[in-house]
Amino acid sequence: MSKVTPATRALTAARVAFTVHAYDYDPDAESIGIQAAAALGEDPARVLKTLMALVDGKPVCVIVPSDQEVSMKKLAASVSGKSAQMMKPTEAERVTGYKVGGISPFGQRKPVRTVIEQSALAHALVYLNGGQRGLQVRMKPTDVRDVVKAVVADVLA
Fold it and tell me: Taking the complete model, does pTM exceed 0.70, yes or no?
């Protein structure tokens, strides 16, 4: 497994501190984020999942704790939209350049609007996908927000 991905290159270019953590990815896990948290021995609230949605037909990246669900209504409202829906996996892969299970908010093919759940900022450090299945990056949540220029909002169901 390579620890250099478009995501880690983007973080290096942004000059933010991060560490890389590999774990045994389980493709059959019911929840990839929960499985990553268990494999890393971390609280699922600190292991964030990166989801791709469509708000009024436009791609939006949403970052939430792995043990939580997104409210589509709150997500749409957070970016002044009317309606939101989850993006189909094949579309998410095409838009981001990453495989599902390895989608990172960093280093995507094209920058898209990003929303981070406000509760994630309460932690000193969080984990996010590093751009490859079985690879997480650990960093300050404020750096996550700043690198992807994320809107901070309550988007939990």
Answer: yes
Distance CA 58, CA 1 (A): 32
Continuous segment of H or E residues that includes residue 63: strand 58-65
* pLDDT tens digit sequence for 62-100: 999 999 999 999 999 999 999 999 999 999 999 999 999
CB 156 within 8 A of CB 131: no
The phi and psi torsions of 142 (rounded to 5 degrees) equal: -70, -30
Distance CA 65, CA 72 (A): 15
Find out whether 117 and 153 touch, Cβ atoms under 8 Å: yes
Nearest CA among 113, 110, 107 for reference residue 128: 107
The three-point CA angle 61-86-76 to 5° equals 65
* Cα→Cα distances 86→1, 4, 69, 75, 138, Å: 29, 28, 11, 11, 25
Distance in angstroms (rounded) separating the CA atoms of residues 141 and 48 = 10
